[in-house]
């Protein structure tokens, strides 16, 4: 059970809710703060004080006063008009994460919603009712307005959901689970949509996948080291301590551990004096990507517990401030950084693929072909990897450097963070497929060099990989192998192989 209080949610908790379907509850003490915050909103409505978002219009309409009898209609109109998302829906796990993160933000007690709003968000999570939320249409300030509006529709008994493997109207799923739709009251519509939960939810899922991709890249690179008889001296701890980056030192340590008893790796001068950078500089390049991922993790851990609503209610309503916590710039920059970090893991992987297939750069059969000339072997797999990394380079262009004014220039700088998070997700999927190609080629190269000489840890991974991708004894439709390997890498239980980062740090 994961209990929400607005302050202590962790990435581990989110992972448990998203993938292990852990149940969610609300902290009673936190809900007391919610009640007090709501009482402040009710007083404002009763006393007819003019406060943005409670009894005014929105954006450029912030100076338009709304009559008390029209406050509920104001919230309904807000959600309907802002539900402008387009394109393919977010993955279900992202929609689920958005429910969780919005509930955690509202339970902080700064937003003025009734407890029932938070209870309904949690009901949807526990019933596995996931709103269908189009991916495109958010500027990332004032928050993820369009995506979160599609989430809010479901609370009202509208919109569509993913439920038990089907895409159905939201009201049908609510009825099947005995969940009553909500009529939004003052400020509640705005509180539901004014935040960064779309980009942050996508960012959390991205980080969890990127972390695994980075770990995968090290094991796969280790098998490539064996296939190419790589030189281990470059991984000596003294080399990396001399530079001082902890992440670089940790990568080198993990590679040394994976290859500690290998009979295929070599020493300086044994076969050659130096390896190419794509082998020799694995700790430096992969380590730098880990540095970026650590930055991303730090920002996500803050944002998942942040109050991103506007206005915010303090001191039981004594202070209500219209600010800008909905602006997604911190996550926008983090997502752009993540894009570059993961793209680089794919870039260096593609260069190792080239070294595995190019007969001018190794002592393996040309293109790892069982019959060079008659059979092309892995030739076109390298083409596919090159295409994927080239696509990543276009996706890695930072979204956060763009801004288009909106709401008649009232909202004149926006983050585009949701675009960055979506592009980061695409880069991660591409990178995993590049690593799948490197894995296929590395397995074949290690087979030519002698599997019996592999290190014990890489040999275990080799044997398991061969259950997914058989040895190349004849040309076949390699697209199937690439996809099978990519799916396996995504679903792999790395703890079963002891390939966690925490272990490497110990």
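Sequence proposed for the structure above (506 residues):
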């Amino acid at each position: 059970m994961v209990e929400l209080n607005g302050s202590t949610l962790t990435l581990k908790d989110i992972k448990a809710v998203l993938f292990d379907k852990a149940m969610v509850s609300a902290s009673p003490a936190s809900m007391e703060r919610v009640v007090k915050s709501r009482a402040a909103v009710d007083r404002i409505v009763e006393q007819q004080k003019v406060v943005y978002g409670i009894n005014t219009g929105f954006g450029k309409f912030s100076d338009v006063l709304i009559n008390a009898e029209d406050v509920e209609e104001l919230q309904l109109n807000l959600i309907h008009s802002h539900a402008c998302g387009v394109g393919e829906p977010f993955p279900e796990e992202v929609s689920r994460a958005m429910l969780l993160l919005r509930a955690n933000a509202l339970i902080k007690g700064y937003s003025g919603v009734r407890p029932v709003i938070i209870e309904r968000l949690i009901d949807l999570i526990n019933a596995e009712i996931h709103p269908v939320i189009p991916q495109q249409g958010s500027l990332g300030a004032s928050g993820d307005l369009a995506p979160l509006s599609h989430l809010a529709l479901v609370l009202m008994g509208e919109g569509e959901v993913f439920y038990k493997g089907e895409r159905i109207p939201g009201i049908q799923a609510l009825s099947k689970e005995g969940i009553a739709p909500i009529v939004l009251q003052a400020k509640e519509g705005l509180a539901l949509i004014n935040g960064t939960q779309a980009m942050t939810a996508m960012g959390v899922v991205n980080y969890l996948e990127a972390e695994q991709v980075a770990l995968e890249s090290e094991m796969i690179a280790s098998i490539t080291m064996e296939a190419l008889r790589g030189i281990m001296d470059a991984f000596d701890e003294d080399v990396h301590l001399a530079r001082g980056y902890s992440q670089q030192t940790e990568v080198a340590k993990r590679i040394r551990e994976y290859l500690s008893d290998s009979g295929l790796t070599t020493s300086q001068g044994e076969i050659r004096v130096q390896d190419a950078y794509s082998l020799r500089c694995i700790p430096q390049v992969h380590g730098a990507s880990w540095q970026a991922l650590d930055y991303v993790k730090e920002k996500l851990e803050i944002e998942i517990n942040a109050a991103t609503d506007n206005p915010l209610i303090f001191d039981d309503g004594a202070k209500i401030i219209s600010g800008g916590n909905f602006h997604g710039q911190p996550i926008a920059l983090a997502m752009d950084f993540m894009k570059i970090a993961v793209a680089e893991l794919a870039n260096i992987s593609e260069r190792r693929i080239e070294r595995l297939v190019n007969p001018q750069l190794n002592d393996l059969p040309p293109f790892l072909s069982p019959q060079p000339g008659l059979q092309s072997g892995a030739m076109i797999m390298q083409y596919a990897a090159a295409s994927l990394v080239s696509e990543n380079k276009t996706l890695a262009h930072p979204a956060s450097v763009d801004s288009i004014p909106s709401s008649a220039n009232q909202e004149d700088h926006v983050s585009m963070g949701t675009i960055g998070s979506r592009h980061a997700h695409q880069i991660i999927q591409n990178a995993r497929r590049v690593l799948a190609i490197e894995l296929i080629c590395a397995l074949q190269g290690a087979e030519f060099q002698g599997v019996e000489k592999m290190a014990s840890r890489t040999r275990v991974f080799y044997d398991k990989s061969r259950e997914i991708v058989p040895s190349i004894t004849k040309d076949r439709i390699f697209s199937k192998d690439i996809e099978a390997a990519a799916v396996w890498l995504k679903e792999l239980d790395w703890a079963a192989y002891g390939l966690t980062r925490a272990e490497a740090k110990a």
